[in-house]
Specification:
The structure holds two protein chains of two kinds. Chain A is of the alpha/beta class. Chain A has helices at about 10-15, 35-45, 50-65, 105-110, 115-125, 140-145, 155-160, 165-170, 180-190, 430-435, 440-460, 465-475, and strands at about 25-30, 85-90, 125-130, 135-140, 150-155, 195, 205-210, 225-230, 235-240, 250, 255-260, 265-270, 285-295, 300-305, 310-315, 320, 325-335, 340-350, 355-365, 370-380, 385-395, 400-410, 415-425. In chain B, helix 5 (about 150-160) runs parallel beside helix 6. By secondary structure, chain B is of the alpha/beta class. The chains are: A alpha/beta, B alpha/beta.
Chain lengths: ~475, ~250
Amino acid sequence: MATESENLESLVNRRYEHGFVTEIETETLPPGLNEGVVRAISARKNEPEWLLEWRLQAYRQWLEMEEPEWAHLHYPKIKYDEISYFAAPKSDDDRPKSLDEVDPKLLETYDKLGIPLHERARLAGVAVDAVFDSVSVATTFKEKLSDAGVIFSSFSEAVIEHPELVRKYLGTVVPRRDNYFAALNSAVFSDGSFVYIPKGVRCPMELSTYFRINAANTGQFERTLIVAEEGSYVSYLEGCTAPMRDENQLHAAIVELVAMDDAEIKYSTVQNWYPGDENGVGGIYNFVTKRGDCRGANSKISWTQVETGSAITWKYPSCLLRGANSVGEFYSVAVTNNMQQADTGTKMIHIGPNTRSTIVSKGISAGKAQQSYRGLVRVMPQAHGARNHTQCDSLLIGKDCGAHTFPYMEIKNPSAKIEHEATTSKISANQLFYCRQRGISEEDAVNMIVNGFCKEVFKELPMEFAVEAQALLNVSLEGAVG
Amino acid sequence: MLQIENLKSRIGETEILRGLSLSVNPGEVHAIMGPNGSGKSTLAQVVAGHQDYEVTGGSVTYKGQDLLELEPEERAREGIFLGFQYPVEIPGVNNAYLLKAALNAKRKHAGLDEIDAFEFLKMAREKMATLDMDPKFLNRGVNEGFSGGEKKRNEILQMAMLEPELAILDETDSGLDIDALKAVANGVNSLRNPDRAIVLVTHYQRLLDYIEPDFVHVLSEGQIIKSGDKSLALALEEKGYDWVREAASA
């Protein structure tokens, strides 16, 4: 147990730590969405004509689509006309070449988040492509990576410098009209990360991006594309926090992963966006499409996520197991407290022969939160010898929260072996009393039990991330009992 | 050390303790005996501070302070240990982790530094050897999949590590085979010293063959109706509880 908690009352009343706003002037487009806005975004980024055309097509497709309503989520209608679709720090034209040139207020923000960029990056050996609002303002370790032939840059930069690569893979995993939010993102995506690992290269360090939503009323539309060529390996970390706001902020991100023969991509997320207050006011609406394509034989894609933030989470990191013997994994811890709602899970699509997938989902609900696991395992007719193991556990804290499980299985090949295990448990009064009788406070006991429950997932995270995730879980559940 | 005066307690609408008085001094070993439903376990739970038991009258003083004012974890840090009759399982939480957290909570309360990992392991291994426990237990989930005997040994291990001033063992002997009983008794006896008091709650005289009590009390309908030395336990074994009850009501 790290430290003894403060008294319960102050814990319950403690505000979201990362709820501050950095006063940096941002250049923001007026609210509303039309072709002019799409053109303006593209022009501001000096994008080539083909990409503008791609965006416009996505926008036109989006107009014809309906917002999905099948999820077990309740929220007021999103007013897309009242959202501004682009915000960039004003110093955009004059990009800093090093951290010394970065706006000190921005660095201060990172400090408040506990991410002293340069130090942390150097100490941890992590290259950071930090996204502040929509434009990347600091990129480190680029040289070391380029020695290895690895491309790690902001998406906008990649469009200019490696247009052929971006054009070849963009939208090939998540098509523009895959879903409503994917189409929206494809039309207005602002920035994100691009990673390319050449054939046979093991990326020399873990790649990490910290996202942060900052400007009021600005939707955040990140786009990440990672391509791992034959026999390569990369581990990518994504972590996020957001400042406190009263109005809801829309986030619709896309992540596309492509793994060729014998390549492996490990994608880890710690998501800590502002969840709204205890009455459900404010908080991020998080509609994310994440999909990995195991395109090559013996390739592997592994998703690990720790989701503690957002008012609404709609997210199903998935794997298309196309290559023979390819492997998909999904390890998830999702925490919902107070009025938070999450509908999250995964899709494992077995297409190639002898493909394997593992799903481990740990859901924790407290307060009045509602959480759903929604998972699809589909075995196509040609996927001989496919195997899936799903384990789906829910932990309830208190009596006003809910856990729901929606497993879907579509098995079209009789040789498939599919296993599904599900449990629901509660932190019992007897467990808490037992711990307290040993001198451990109730708060610490809850943390201990929750971390024990999540252990299988945490061990999949890179070391320093696991520590961060554990701390985050404790903060997220403060005041959940008592 | 522990003064219980005219204690009354109920769970829900059921009154269980009906004016119980008991005095325990450092260095003493007390055995509380009595038939099912007489209130033995309730006494243990009330002293430990279980929230389901409401105290409706009387007082409990521990080391000069009003014990009933303290939270369960404060009581524990002040040196009260309860060996549970039914230790709970906490899946996924490492046994060593719980032990270390408990030990450090107590050390912190006493103004001491946290124990370092090396020292902790050394201490745990030593204590486990005296209890004839496999060191692998440290890395298992707390009581997860333990047999009845293993759970009880684990309670004694925790007690040995935490070195309480007042240990209450609630039917620690129930469900143990003779080897486990001896190991548990060994563990308890090794903790006997002039500064520490031990209260054994038990059904059977059998445990007292291995742990010799200074006092034996008979509990019936929420009150202590007879107290004596270890010969009282032998008399109970021979004649049953009715004999004491009749004598008490006569």
